[in-house]
Amino acid sequence: MVFCDAGEYSSWLSCKTCPAGYACPHWIEGGKYKCGTGEYSHEGWERCQHCPAGYYCVNGGINACSPGLFQPENGASGCYRCETGLWSGFYATGRPEIDIQTAV
User: What pTM was estimated for this model as a whole?
Assistant: First the structure.
């Protein structure tokens, strides 16, 4: 068994870089575990991170909320759709704004 650094995992007799969507702390034998719902990681990371507001995280990946969607909470696995007459831009973290053009 090979002991690897944080951000790596043991693959038989060598160490490999931890893949995106997984965490590879140095203290886990064998070395990697999949990020949970609402978490993400990039290649070579030691631990998974909670998804920040304005984003959603599924299968260890991170995605920005698209225009017309928002997410005010950390650790989310999806975004909320704006109600009719409201809008939001990319990475929206707060409540949508009134769309003046359609509200008139």
Answer: 0.77
